[in-house]
Design brief:
Largest sheet: 7 strands, mixed
Order of helices and strands: EEEEEEEEEEE
Helix content: under 10%
Structural class: mainly beta
Oligomer: single chain
Strand content: over 45%
Amino acid sequence: QVQLVESGGGLVQAGGSLRLSCAASGGTFGIANMGWFRQAPGKEREFVAQVRWSGGSTTYADSLMGRFTISRDNAKNTVHLQMNNLEPEDTAIYYCAARRVTVVQYDIWGQGTQVTVSS
């Protein structure tokens, strides 16, 4: 089974940028989409962005489109999330996830990486 490991989180000032990475070990055979989600303390997990592994088409949460960019490198089995003009409201644990072609929901998850944006 695919294992996902996130990296790139940290502390950044408002207006700054971070680039998150998600490395998929074990290959990506059978993966339809990979995406990013986030969860702030006391709030539900929310969708951030996703990319189709084949073709590379992307979708974003409406509120984040224009500031965040998702990309993938099929050869390296890696997906990235470039986050620009960060706001304190972006503070959350960011999770990488993958959806298999045979299921409807995302069912493979990484451990998450903390992003903290100071004002």
